[in-house]
């Protein structure tokens, strides 16, 4: 997810008539459009692209009226059902006032109405902290557990949202979530990689063979729930906003929980840092079992049957997503090509970790 903290920004260097990287608009054209469509907007000064995002190019906009964030579809040919910034906008707008912290949505430009022919939205800028390393080395040891607990509480609150009340009852298909998602990401993976990895083929087969019966749980799921998609307050453990809702839908809440719990298993190195090899007690962070137990207690749910299935699904889904990122790099339309290639190289490692969970379950 793209960082939104001002301290992480490179210096702006876009001239008024220069095309903004990845957006296909000049500063003049964007300023005219935003002045006409965003209430109170005026005096566009600079646009700076955040450099770390992979999915949808995201920009900090500085204007006389204040700072904003713009998030856009990327250029080029896109995979089906990917990069739906309109869905991101809709879900965050719907969650305003729900108890789930989200940035304020200011404007959505649809594909048809956008001045560059690609959908984008504008939201408020949040001046908080994004923490990239799950071990939280920049946070005092005594304060780390509170950050994880806040994230756990926000996840439980999200899954308790009454989707009918917030106008999202049609945001996805209720029931059969894991079967549908397995089919979807199998298709996306095969569209991204013409030479499938043997481990990925094995995972796909295993997921199909061990698919749990639908238990009726339906919730609004984020789809990418992890530490660096949370904007924390500058001090303390308060959450200012949950970001990057591109993969949100109606689904099964355990998908979000298992997706985050991958971080307990990923190594604490490289581009996708986790808590693998970290002494949790010494670090002051909860174990995977403690985090899961806290979530279940908050939701009033029983112990989870077949937890390995949900973990394997989470690894598979992330591997399929990153295979798509690598495919965009090969096609020349990745938001950050170098990072995209590195993420693509992680696909075999993720697949191997999923296979390890399968083998542990079979032992």
Describe the structure.
The chain is an alpha+beta fold and 363 residues long. It folds into 2 domains: 119 residues, Phosphorylase Kinase, domain 1, CATH 3.30.200.20; 222 residues, Aminoglycoside 3'-phosphotransferase, Chain: A, domain 2, CATH 3.90.1200. Helices cover 39% and strands 12% of the residues. The protein contains 11 helices and 9 strands. A 5-stranded antiparallel beta sheet has the order 1-2-3-5-4, with helices on both faces. Helix 6 crosses helix 9. The chain is globular, with a radius of gyration of 20 Å. The two termini are 36 Å apart.
The dominant shape is globular
Classify the fold: give the CATH topology of the largest domain: Aminoglycoside 3'-phosphotransferase, Chain: A, domain 2
Number of strands: 9
SSE order, as H and E? HEEEHEEHHHEEEEHHHHHH
Number of continuous helical runs: 11
Widest sheet, order of strands:
1-2-3-5-4
When the domains are counted, the total is 2
- Architecture per CATH nomenclature, i.e. the level-2 architecture of the largest domain: Alpha-Beta Complex
Radius of gyration: 20 Å
Structural class: alpha+beta
Helix content: 25-40%
Q: What fraction of the residues are assigned to beta strands by DSSP? A: 5-15%
Low-pLDDT regions:
1-13
Mean pLDDT: 89
CATH class of the largest domain: Alpha Beta
Largest beta-sheet characterization: 5 strands, antiparallel
Short description:
This protein is an alpha+beta fold and 363 residues long. 39% of the residues lie in helices and 12% in strands.
């Amino acid at each position: 997810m793209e960082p939104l903290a001002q301290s992480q920004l490179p210096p702006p260097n876009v001239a008024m008539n220069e095309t903004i990287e990845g957006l296909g608009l000049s500063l003049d054209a964007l300023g005219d459009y935003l002045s006409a469509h965003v209430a109170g907007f005026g005096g566009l000064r600079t646009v700076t692209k955040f450099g770390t995002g992979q999915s949808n190019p995201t920009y900090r906009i500085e204007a006389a009226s204040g700072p904003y964030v713009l998030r856009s579809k990327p250029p080029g040919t896109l995979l089906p059902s990917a990069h739906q910034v309109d869905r991101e906008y809709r879900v965050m707008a719907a969650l305003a006032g729900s108890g789930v912290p989200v940035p304020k949505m200011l404007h959505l430009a649809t594909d048809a109405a956008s001045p560059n022919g690609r959908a984008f939205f504008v939201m408020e800028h949040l001046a908080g902290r994004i923490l990239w390393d799950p071990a939280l080395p920049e946070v005092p040891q005594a304060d780390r557990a509170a950050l994880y607990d806040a994230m756990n509480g926000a996840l439980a609150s999200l899954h308790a949202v009454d989707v009918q009340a917030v106008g999202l009852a049609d945001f996805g298909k209720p029931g059969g979530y894991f079967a549908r998602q397995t089919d979807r990401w199998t298709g996306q993976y095969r569209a991204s990689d013409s030479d499938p990895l043997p481990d990925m083929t094995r995972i796909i087969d295993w997921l199909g063979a061990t698919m749990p019966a639908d238990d009726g749980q339906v919730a609004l799921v984020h789809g990418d729930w992890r530490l660096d998609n949370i904007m924390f307050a500058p001090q303390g453990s308060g959450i200012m906003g949950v970001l990057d809702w591109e993969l949100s839908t109606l689904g099964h809440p355990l998908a979000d929980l298992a997706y985050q719990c991958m971080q307990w298993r990923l190594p604490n190195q490289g581009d996708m840092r986790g808590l693998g090899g970290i002494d949790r007690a010494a670090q002051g962070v909860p174990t995977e079992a403690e985090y899961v137990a806290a979530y279940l207690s908050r939701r009033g749910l029983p112990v989870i049957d077949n937890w390995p299935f949900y973990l394997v699904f989470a690894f598979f889904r992330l591997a399929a997503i990153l295979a798509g990122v690598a495919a965009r790099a090969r096609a020349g339309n990745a938001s950050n090509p170098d990072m995209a290639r590195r993420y693509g190289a992680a696909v075999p490692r993720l697949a191997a970790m999923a296979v390890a969970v399968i083998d542990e379950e079979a032992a």
